[in-house]
Design brief:
The longest helix has 20 residues, at 43-62. Strand 16 and strand 17 form a beta hairpin. It is built from two helices and 27 strands. The protein has three domains: 19-30 and 266-375, Immunoglobulin-like; 43-242, Glucose Permease (Domain IIA) (Distorted Sandwich); 385-461, Immunoglobulin-like. 6% of the residues lie in helices and 35% in strands. It has helices at 43-62, 140-145, and strands at residues 27-30, 83-85, 95-99, 132-136, 149-152, 157-163, 180-184, 190-194, 209-210, 215-218, 229-235, 241-242, 268-275, 295-297, 301-311, 315-322, 328-336, 340-350, 355-363, 366-375, 389-391, 398-402, 407-413, 419-424, 432-434, 441-449, 454-461. The chain is mostly beta strands. The chain is globular, with a radius of gyration of 26 Å. Strands 3, 4, 6, 7, 8, 9, 11 and 12 form an eight-stranded antiparallel beta sheet that branches. Strands 14-20-19-16-17 form a five-stranded mixed beta sheet, with no helix packed on it. It has a four-stranded antiparallel beta sheet with strand order 1-18-15-13, with no helix packed on it.
Length: 465
């Protein structure tokens, strides 16, 4: 018999759940990015960039290194999307849009985007937003820390300027410079890529060529920024601002500059995840407490979460949880009651079978499936965990973990908390760690048992003289 779900209410809920989840409530709500409208570039900064780009272009031309001479017959370039998920990560997508170009020159609070909507901003000082702001979702700071979201060249061209080495965890208006790359294309247009992560920029230099889709850097929050996002700004060969989107209220250009323009409302399932506890979105710039986990013990409480982009009011998400034997644990429809640029929703219950489970969501014709593992504990109590011995210490190349508990995770961090090495094995207990590649010094080793008990020990690597 299926167990009755037990839920608690957090905030901003709406639902229409059938089958075993009837009458239960969803937890979660809207994620609000960029609540403080911040000038991505001050007028002085933008003017200085334009002067720098002109000087660099002239210098390359004098040195006969400018890759193309522009003629009246030059064909307008078309852009691919400038943000992608790095290899090795498994979210379904990593971005949403907070702002487009503002086509209403009046201010303040008088904005019009290309689609005649209000997804843009201006300021009392007279700044009308220029460019497209593409922010990270979900867990933006976690993605920055792990280099998960990459900036890529929207079109092939030549690097005519770049700036790196600037602070990249901004949360409000400041006078700092952003980390950025500027690429000139065959038609003489230029794309600006701003707010990137310190030290992440391409190793290529001014004058070097890049191809469409090539890595330029990692999305972060350098310069005037309220959170991790890419500011993508475009100018034509006469240095006129361009809005790459075509629409009835685009006053700058009549045609799209995208090779495939995305819809204004681009509903998407960005991630379907499982957690040990509700995620916590901490105060900027503190990294989120994701509590993401894919390995559980039978009867553990599992938190089932979905992360949406452009959720639309009065639409339904179908949600389904399937046991390892393909029997349905739960299947229900969840009704969204508001329009949000990004949102998250979660439910929880105890899992009752071992093996590989499936947690899936279907929204607007798209289905995303997430798998997670449930196992039996090696014992009902982990009384032997505290007796675990780690030796030798100081160590040279190998650390031995002597424990009667099943050690499934071993993590080594330095004195600043930076992760140096992590090993995870749910099948075979961890008994030895090869640390030959680690430099001499003081570290912390944290081990975790199959029953989620943790223990941290200070360790020292010291090569014998």
């Amino acid at each position: 018999m299926k167990k009755k779900y037990s839920f608690f209410y957090l905030f901003l809920f709406s639902l229409s759940i059938s089958n075993v989840l009837a009458q239960n409530k969803a937890n979660g709500g809207a994620f609000l990015f960029n609540s403080e409208k911040t000038v991505c570039l001050t007028n002085d900064q933008r003017d200085a960039i334009k002067i720098m780009l002109q000087k660099n272009t002239t210098k390359l031309q004098i040195e006969n290194k400018l890759f193309a001479s522009i003629t009246k017959n030059s064909q307008q370039v078309l852009f691919s999307w400038p943000v992608q998920q790095a290899n090795g990560f498994t979210y379904n997508d990593v971005w949403a849009i907070s702002n487009y170009v503002d086509h209403n020159t009046a201010f303040p609070n008088q904005v019009t985007d290309y689609n005649c909507g209000t997804k843009s901003y201006d300021t009392p000082s007279g700044y009308n937003h220029q460019g497209v702001d593409i922010y990270l979702w979900p867990f933006s700071w976690y993605m920055v820390d792990n280099n998960q979201a990459e900036v890529i060249a929207a079109q092939s061209g030549q690097i005519i300027a770049k700036s790196d080495g600037n602070f990249d965890r901004s949360c409000s208006l400041n006078n700092s410079q952003w980390n950025s790359v500027y690429v000139r294309h065959s038609d003489g247009s230029t794309a600006w890529y701003g707010h990137m992560k310190n030290g992440s920029l391409t190793s290529k230099n001014i004058g070097d060529m890049v191809v469409q889709g090539e890595f330029l850097g990692v999305v972060a929050s350098s310069g005037n920024s309220t959170g991790p996002h890419l500011h993508f700004e475009v100018y034509d060969n006469s240095n006129n601002l361009i809005d790459p989107y075509s629409g009835n209220c685009n006053n700058l250009n009549s045609s799209t500059w995208w090779n495939s323009q995305k819809p204004y409302v681009d509903s998407n399932i960005n991630a379907v995840l499982t957690h040990t506890a509700p995620p916590a979105f901490n105060t900027c710039p503190t990294t989120e407490t994701t509590n993401i986990n894919n390995d559980f013990i039978i009867n553990d409480a599992v938190y089932f979460a979905i992360y949406l982009r452009d959720q639309v009011a009065n639409t339904n998400v179908n949600l389904k949880i399937t046991r390892p034997d393909n029997s349905v644990f739960a299947n229900w429809n969840f009704t969204l009651t508001a329009n949000y640029s990004s949102s998250y929703w979660y439910w929880w219950n105890n899992v009752d079978a071992t093996g590989v489970w499936k947690w899936e969501a279907t929204y607007q014709g798209q289905t995303v499936v997430h798998t997670f593992n449930v196992a039996f504990p090696l014992s009902t109590k982990d009384v032997t965990f505290e007796a675990t011995v780690i030796y030798p210490n100081p160590f040279k190349d190998i650390i031995t973990i002597n424990s009667k508990s099943k050690i499934i995770t071993a993590t080594i961090t330095d004195l600043l908390g930076k992760e140096i090495l992590k090993i995870r094995n749910k099948v075979k207990p961890i008994h030895k760690i090869d640390v030959s590649s680690i430099s001499n010094g003081i570290y912390f080793l944290t081990i975790e048992s199959h029953l989620h008990k943790k223990k941290t020990t200070k360790i020292i690597k010291k090569q014998p003289k």
